[in-house]
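INFO  loader      accepted 1 record
INFO  loader      residues=197
INFO  predictor   begin
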Amino acid sequence: MSVSEALLDRAAAAVREGDLVVYPTETVYGLGADALNAAAVKRVFDAKNRDRSKPVSLAVPSVSAAANVTKPTDREQAFMREFLPGPVTVVVERGPAVPDILTAGSDRVGVRVPDHEVALALLERTPPLTATSANVSGRESAQTVDTLDAEIRGAAQTIVDAGETAGGRGSTVVDVAAGTVHRRGPLADAVERWLQQ
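INFO  predictor   done
INFO  writer      dumping C-alpha cells
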C-alpha cells in the first residue's frame, strides 16, 4: 500500500513541530519523533512508558546521512554500506547534536536505515527520527495500525498507514567496533560472518 505525498508532508510537519508520528518499517511500525530534539524524544519515552536507562536508536534515509549526526569509523561505514538499508541497527559514536536522553547518556547511538519505501520517503523530509517500535514497552509490536496500543494512538499526531508490515523480530543490533551482536534478529548470521572477517 502506498501513501499520499500529502500524508508524508503532514507527518514531516508534525515531526518538525516536536510531535510524534507512527511510521512503517520493514519489520514493524515505529514511533517517530525528531531524534535531535530532547523534548520530542522525552515524549517518545513517555508514550512507550520506556525506562530512561534504555537508549533509543535513530533512523536516517541513507548511510551518508548517518555521517551528518554520528562519527562512524571506516570499518563501521563499510559495515553500514553492506547491510543498510535493512533490518540492522549499527551502534556508532554519536555526534554533538544527538541528545543525552536518546542514548541514555552513552557516547554511542544506534543507527537504522529502514528498507521500506514509505519510511525512507518520510526520512527524506525530516530530521533523523527515533527508531523504536510503536508500542508500550513490554507489549507486542504492531504490524498494522489497527493493532496499535491506545496509548500510542493517543500520543501520535500523525499515523502513516502503509498496510501490514512484514513483521518478525526487531532489527539485529550490532556494535561493529566491539564485534558484538547485542540483539539477534534478521540477517544476524550474515552479520556475525561479516564481523569475523
